Amino acid sequence: QQQQQQQQEQTDFIRAVDGVSESILATRKLVTQLEDLVSSRATSADPRRDIEALHQLFTADMAQLTKELTALRSYVSSSMGGQRLKSCEAIVDALRRDSQELMTAFQKALEKRNDVLRELAQRQKLFAHPMANGPLLQLQQPLFAPPPSHAPPPLAP
Question: Across the chain, which distance is largest between two alpha carbons, in Å?
Answer without folding.
Answer: 124
